[in-house]
Amino acid sequence: MNACHEPISWLRLEHFHLGELPQEERGHIQAHLHDCPHCRAMLAEIEDDGRTLPPLPDTAPSAKPWYRRLDILFPAVAGPVLVAALALILVLPPSTTPGLPGPRVAYKGGELAIDLVRERAGVTRQSPKAYQDGDRFAVLITTPAGERHWDLVVLQQGQAFFPLEPGATSGGNRTNVGAFTLTGPGAADVCVMVGDGIPPRSELESRGAEALADGAACVTLKQSTGGRR
Amino acid sequence: MEIYRRYGPALLRKCERMLGNRPDAEDVVQGIFVDLYRRGRTDVDLPYLYRAATSRCLNRIRDSRRRRELLDLHGEVLISAGPGVPEQRAISVDLLAQLVNKLDGKSAEILVYRYLDQMTGDEIADLLGVSRRAVTKRLTKIRTALEVIANNGGGEA
């Protein structure tokens, strides 16, 4: 086979695949593909990529928890609100919920674990212990083999938030199930719940950590206002 | 969610080529769309998203901790830029990480478009809204950086 001296770019092939090219350009690409097995193979990679998209965290404005709606108020109100929140933080003790499961617990003959990766201004940190407003966290969960549903709850200042759409996992180590943005005030307990350990969201909203059953693992993030991580 | 369904798969493939692994690629792509939705932006096209994805992936590679992880994971493995792409047009995760640290932001972006996304100089100029001449100058700079690394035996400076 001859090498292709000027392959069609991936971007143009993606446009072609999506049917977004003008007819003339589409014709040029079809002619090139007819003569070029290499670019046909590139297109086949696109067409044969049957992997599914991971679910996006719930971003609908009506479904956003209050701490993620603050940006809508910006800049008129968010500034004063954040200042007031920061002032409040100074008098609020970092809350750690008594009796909360740890980040690694025995479950169904194996291990259930949660770990977070924090992203702040393009810099990532594994297993963080603290957050600042606007930090993003990727959630990695470890579950024993077997198909199980999971859900994630953030318990903060007596309220329960659900930043990710619940999903299913077939088991494995450190599966990335999504990412969310966290804003204060106060420490946040981030808990993954799997299988039979998933209580109804309404129960988590009304009873908080008390609603957690076996099959939950949690990490606590303290709020920091800058400086040390 | 429509633009996520429409363009998400293309961006995942692109980010996976840059980062060499699917979980990081998914994280980057999710971050792009979450930020767009939070800002109420749904009027974006694929070239805009390609640029956003390139920028975020480069930031990840620049992060030294992530860079070490990528190198641990992928070492000398060649990124296949495409089944028919001549070898000199494909670069490895290792080489990309080294180059990113030697180039300014715009040159690093052009490096990705040329050597990973397989764009022509004209396509890159159109995407960035700059002249073809400006792209050519940057590509010369990139080739010089590549030669320096090649002459050093691929080791880090």
In helices, the fraction of residues of chain A equals 25-40%
Task: Determine Rg of chain A (CA atoms, Å).
Answer: 23 Å
Overall mean pLDDT of chain A stands at: 79
**Fourth-tier CATH superfamily name of the largest domain in chain B:** Winged helix-like DNA-binding domain superfamily/Winged helix DNA-binding domain
Task: Give a description of the structure.
The complex is a heterodimer of chains A (229) and B (157). Chain A has helices at residues 10-18, 23-35, 37-47, 66-73, 78-91, 201-207; strands at 104-107, 110-120, 123-126, 130-131, 135-143, 148-156, 159-161, 167-169, 172-182, 188-194, 216-223. With 229 residues, chain A is of the alpha+beta class. The relative contact order of chain A is 0.15. In chain A, the strands form two sheets. In chain A, strands 4, 6, 7, 8, 10 and 11 form a six-stranded mixed beta sheet that branches. Chain A is elongated. In chain B, 71% of the residues lie in helices and 0% in strands. By secondary structure, chain B is mainly alpha-helical. Chain B has eight helices and no strands. Chain B is globular and about 45 Å long. Chain B has two domains: 1-68; 75-157, Arc Repressor Mutant, subunit A. Classes of the chains: A alpha+beta (229), B mainly alpha (157).
